[in-house]
Design brief:
The protein has one domain (10-102). The protein is 68% helix and 0% strand. The chain is built from three helices and no strands. 12% of the residues are buried.
């Protein structure tokens, strides 16, 4: 079993937090290029990219304008931070369980 350090786990969590919004935005462009809503994709977006709720602030703003890009950047950054936080919590839980199971002393 490969032992992963906390920093590596944190970086992987952050990369996943960045990759999910990119994948959802690309899928949205492929599935509905004319902007018509595709409901299952929006449900996935709310679960996998919870900070996308902030994109409601772009309603009425032309796509890819500076205000749109700033809001999108903030929503993606919040998602990266959220995934990093959840990843670090999972790492600490995993570490605690491993220490309990192996009987290793605390440091």
């Amino acid at each position: 079993m490969m032992k992963r350090s906390f920093s590596r786990w944190l970086v992987v969590s952050a990369i996943v937090g960045l990759a999910i919004p990119i994948a959802i935005l690309l899928a949205q462009e492929v599935i509905s290029p004319n902007g018509s809503p595709y409901q299952p994709l929006y449900l996935i977006m709310l679960i996998a990219w919870p900070s996308s709720i902030g994109m409601m602030a772009t309603d009425g703003i032309p796509e890819w304008s500076s205000a749109f890009n700033m809001t999108l950047s903030i929503c993606v950054l919040v998602n990266i931070l959220l995934y990093s936080a959840v990843g670090s919590i999972i790492w600490w839980i995993k570490r605690g369980i491993t220490r309990i199971r192996t009987g290793l002393p605390r440091r």
